[in-house]
Amino acid sequence: MKIPCYGCDTVTELEVGFEVINFVCPNCQSLYAVDSEGKFRRKSQYKNTLNDYTLQIGDKGFLKGSDYTVTGILDKNIYPNYRWTEYILQNSEKEFLYLSESKGHWILLTEMEETFGVRTHPLILEHNNEDYNIYEYSDTEIVNAQGFFDFALPNNTLIHLVEYIRPPYMISVERMNGVETAFYGEYIKKDKIKKAFSRSFMPYQSGVNIIEPFQFDIRNTAIIFCIFALIIITANWFIYKDQAEQNVFYKEITFSDIDNKEITSSSFTLNGGSAPLTIHVSTEVDNSWANVNIALINENTNDEIYASKDIEYYHGYSDGESWSEGAQSEEFNICGVKGGKYHLLITPLKAPEDLNNKVIKINVVWNQPSNRNVWIIVIFMIIVFLVIRFFKLNFEKTRWADSNYSPYSE
Questions:
Q1: HEC string of 99-156?
Q2: Which pTM value belongs to this model?
Q3: Are 321 and 314 within 8 A, CB to CB?
């Protein structure tokens, strides 16, 4: 079909699969209607001549398994200044598809055969056994248009619009020229539109669209975290269920007997999963210090792990008050000791001037495994889930900010 515009001498040519009732020149926005003789007569002109649309009349894109052509563009506005653009598309099978773009967000819509009674604006709309919540109802004005239309564009008449949402889906019911039509919409990522129409540039996205899905499904995230936590707890129990605390070394060592020399313990075997090796050291230091160096030797791999600990205890009386610092015993761990055959190399030391301290006691225990790491992971997942839930709440509040039916109204 080829239609000339008498206002700007522009000819628009496009093959469409429907009877054209109205035509709007893409260049000057002059509105044409078919007269009784089948000729297009200029009726009026849209005052808004903004042509900065992402898609243009005649553009072709591949959506829902078919090639579609843009046949019409509608620019709509809700008083005072909420605007969006609707693109009407048709394929070779004469099937219509609609794209709605607002602030860089896109919704793909198809016309529904089902009808809904929304004159009283019910709060809930049921479709396929699922509830859709009313978002808003409003009167909409077409402020600009382009292309070919199989219906009469309203002249100084508002379109009544009622929207119900169940993100990422919606049902939009329009009443125009006395005819009520329902559309089923689905949020579509702009990357899909970009790919479908081979666009190098897409409008910048801002805000939250009324059916934009949150990045995380809260319910699925909770289920995944619970399953993951259960697996960790079960695996930890299975690995360590037969493992008990094991005393591997105890000795009271007289400093005079060793003379700062190294002591080698008997070999011992650890059976089970990784667990901390706890070393408890005590000695009667009094205003003095002592030290113990311990090497854990894996006899199978010859791997060596070293640890050292100072035992210090000082006390006195000054400025009318008594004071003390340190202790006569200390405890420390060699973490993550795996099962295997080991022995210890122990070197005790004390202050040379300390003649009163005679003995140092060393007790080494391979502990019953701690669940600390398991609970750290579980607590971390809980914190992550709560953070996601917090952002989800703010996301939903932003979604419903322009609605009079927000469930988050304070």
A1: EEEECCEEEEEEECCCCCCCCCCCCEEEECCEEEEEEEEEEEEEEEEEEEECCCCCCC
A2: 0.74
A3: no
- Using the CB atoms, write b or e for 209-244: b if 16+ within 10 Å: bbbbebebeeeebeeebeeebeebeeebeeebeebe
pLDDT 10s digits, 173-195: 999 888 899 999 999 999 999 99
Backbone dihedral angles phi then psi of residue 110, each to the nearest 5 degrees = -130, 150
Could you tell me the two tokens for 118? 């929304």
Q: Is 376 left (phi over 0), alpha (psi -120 to 50) or beta?
A: alpha
Cα 393 to Cα 203, 274, 408, 410: the distances in Å are 26, 41, 9, 14
| Section 216-235 average pLDDT | 94
Provide the token pair at 178.
């006395």
Res. 410: pLDDT tops 70? no
Instruction: Burial-class residue 39 by CB neighbours within 10 Å (0-12, 13-18, 19+).
Output: exposed
Evaluate the omega torsion of the peptide bond into residue 80 and state whether it is cis, within 30 degrees of 0: yes
d(CA 205, CA 103): 6
Q: Which domains does the chain have, with CATH numbers?
A: 2-213 (no CATH), 215-243+380-410 (no CATH), 246-368 (2.60.120.380)
Which tokens sit at 316?
């006195």
Query: How does residue 368 score in pLDDT terms, banded at 50, 70 and 90?
Result: low
Q: Please, is 68 exposed, middle or buried when counting C-beta atoms within 10 Å of its C-beta (0-12, 13-18, 19+)?
A: buried
The arrangement of strands across the sheet holding 275-283 comes to: 246-254, 359-366, 275-283, 329-337
Alpha carbons within 13 angstroms on the beta-carbon side of residue 317 total: 1
Check: CB of residue 364 under 8 Å from CB of residue 322. Answer: no
Place 77 in a pLDDT band, splitting at 50, 70 and 90. very high
Of 109, 114, 58, 59, nearest in space to 86 by CA: 109
pLDDT tops 70 at residue 65: yes
94 close to 16: Cβ distance less than 8 angstroms = no
C-alpha 402/C-alpha 395 separation (Å) is 13
Q: Within a 13 Å sphere around the CA of 45, how many CA atoms are in the beta-carbon half?
A: 13
Q: What is the pLDDT of residue 244?
A: 75
